[in-house]
Design goal:
By secondary structure, the chain is mainly α. The protein has helices at about 1-15, 15-20, 30-55, 65-85, 90-95, 110-130, 135-145, 160-165, 170-175, 180-195, 205-210, 215-220, 240-245, 265-285, 290-295, 310-314. Helix 1 (about 1-15) packs across helix 5, helix 6 (about 110-130) crosses helix 10 and helix 7 runs antiparallel to helix 14 (about 265-285).
Length: about 325
């Protein structure tokens, strides 16, 4: 099959086979998962360090919620591991097969360029995850906690691989960057972002705060305060928010969570509740265009009642 050949060519050209020959067999995983496997003990250790400091403040950490956050993250990783090869890898393979630049060598310069481009793609993916309801249906899980600590970073949605946010990275494969490199850069970005989910770090040096996404910037992003919502979308860098007008500094204590909290501890409901709400809105009477508009309109958008002819007939 052509797709299988495409995947084989990507793998052979990535340099990963040579790397894996010097690693134990049990580490021979998808390169993104390999990075997360290596990082997970660090994540757990850092959270435990933070937990010791904040355990007496229920506004900062809740034992049950922290456990659920890691369970939500485990579900996300399992579906990525099981289904990425069936859902996203073939698309990247086809894009790379028809790449515009035949050979992009892997060196420090191209690696830094790709990391920069991955972060740019992440900015637009993250912005869409807040402003397009279909993407928000998956991303809302991450924002539904009313606390901000390192376990919140693990609060992910198991439907991410099916939701399609990874499509924002496909143009990089079409340019000619090997999908393996893209996956590594994206995984490293997510590892970095784990460490900005905390209230223990105030503000860093002004030069760092100007260029990089920091705990202060990301607390703003998680805040539901008026003026904080839909801001600071950056992954590693905050410069794209400054460039595109979505940056906000931390000027008041953030109130974390979503504007319409969901009162459940059920793992599956935490993953699926917004999809169900989206389905209910699509199911309301109206034209096909009105119904389908809920998919790409902002999460807060509702059909104007005075324009709904079906509503007026009732």
């Amino acid at each position: 099959m052509d797709i299988l050949l495409y995947l084989t060519n990507i793998y052979d050209s990535s340099g990963l086979p040579q790397l894996l020959t010097i690693l134990p067999n049990w580490l021979a995983l998808d390169e993104r998962q390999l990075i997360f496997v290596l990082a997970t003990p660090i994540f757990i250790g850092v959270f435990l360090w933070e937990y010791v400091k904040i355990r007496h403040d229920p506004k900062l950490v809740d034992n049950g919620e922290a456990v659920r956050n890691f369970m939500l993250g485990a579900g996300y990783q399992i579906t990525e591991l099981l289904f990425a090869g069936l859902v996203s890898f073939p698309v990247f393979a086809i894009a790379w097969h028809y790449r515009l630049i035949e050979h992009i060598p892997l060196n420090i310069g191209t690696g830094l360029l790709l990391f920069f481009l991955v972060d740019l793609c992440y900015y637009f993916f993250h912005r869409a995850s807040h402003r397009v309801r279909w993407f928000w249906a998956a991303h809302i899980t991450h924002h539904s906690s009313e606390r901000m600590n390192f376990s919140t970073a693990m609060r992910q949605n198991a439907t991410n691989i099916f939701n399609g946010g990874w499509l924002f990275l496909v143009p990089l494969a079409l340019i000619g960057f090997n999908p393996v490199w893209i996956g590594v850069c994206f995984a490293l970005s997510l590892v970095y972002q784990f460490f900005i989910h905390t209230t223990l770090v105030t503000k860093l040096h002004p030069a760092i705060e100007f260029i990089f996404n920091t705990p202060s910037h990301h607390r703003v992003h998680h805040g539901k305060n008026r003026g904080y919502i839909d801001t600071n979308y950056g992954g590693v860098l905050i410069i794209f928010d400054r460039l595109f007008g979505t940056f906000r500094p931390e000027t008041e204590t953030p109130e974390f969570g979503i504007t319409e909290p969901i009162d459940t501890n059920n793992i599956f409901m935490l993953w699926c509740h917004e999809y169900l709400a989206l389905g209910r809105d699509i199911g309301k009477k109206g034209s096909l265009w009105q119904r389908s508009s809920h998919l790409w309109r902002p999460p807060e958008w509702q059909r104007p009642i005075h324009k709904d002819k079906y509503h007026n007939q009732e």
